[in-house]
Amino acid sequence: MKYWLYRGSEMTKGKLYGVSVGPGDPELMTLKAVRIIREADIIALPHSDKEKCAAYTIAVQSVPEMDKKELLMIPMPMTKDRETLKSAHRHGVKAVTEALDRGKNVAFLTLGDVCVYSSCQYIYQPVKKLGYDTELISGVPSFCAVSAKLDRPLVSGEQKLHIIPATYALDDCISLDGVKVLMKPEKSLEKIKSMNCGLCGVENCGMENEKIYRNKNEIDDKQGYYSLFIAD
Which residues lie closer than 8 Å to 214 by C-beta, 6 or more apart? Predict the structure, then answer.
């Protein structure tokens, strides 16, 4: 039996966790992420369909009992239209705060690490500003997993590391000194392959349809959302 906690006449509000599930391999989930998911009352997913949500398909392999919990679907459209995004984020914040107001602890799952280009932050930060209790659970970022999969160091010695959202900022970053991690490169693939540098990467790292590219000549002409390249 679950007991509600009260402060005077007001029920204690729940806590929001931003939970990193890693890049794809469920064995790369942290022990803390697994524990938080097991202890949470509600699992929030950044999608309208759990079966199509990468974060869900990863986490459920390590925490199969997650399927018995209440799932909160929060669609996060893949668009650059600001009004569409603002509307989706407002609805997401409203759904999460309503759950927190019921005294439920919510674990919002996110692919990779919650602090690196995470859709979770568009919900997490507004909820935090509203005064709710929050906590981020870090995990294995995709670029570290890709580097390990390629069996190479990401950076060493005095090398600089640049993390670049290739959809937006590629032109300004090509000439940067050091190692460049190119995330979400599918729309800039032609330009990336024309770069005068070493290039390697992984598509769908840690997932069933994983593809490893050890040089630019191996890279398929079509890449998905979960591709990541390392340029040096």
Answer: 150, 200
Q: Of 36, 34, 45, nearest to 17 (Cα)?
A: 36
Residue 114: Cβ-neighbour burial (10 angstroms; 0-12, 13-18, 19+): buried
Rounded Cα gap, residues 156 and 110, in angstroms: 28
Pairing of strands 227-231, 179-183: antiparallel
**pLDDT tens profile 54-111:** 999 999 999 999 999 999 999 988 777 889 889 999 999 999 999 999 999 999 999 9
Asked whether the beta carbons of 16 and 100 are under 8 A apart, the reply is: yes
Secondary structure (3-state) at 94? helix
Q: What is the 3-state secondary structure (H, E, C) of 160-212?
A: CEEEEEHHHHHHHHCCCCCEEEEECCHHHHHHHHCCCCCEEEEECCCCCCCEE
Q: 120 and 110 in contact (C-beta within 8 Å)?
A: yes
pLDDT tens per residue, range 82-98: 898 899 999 999 999 99
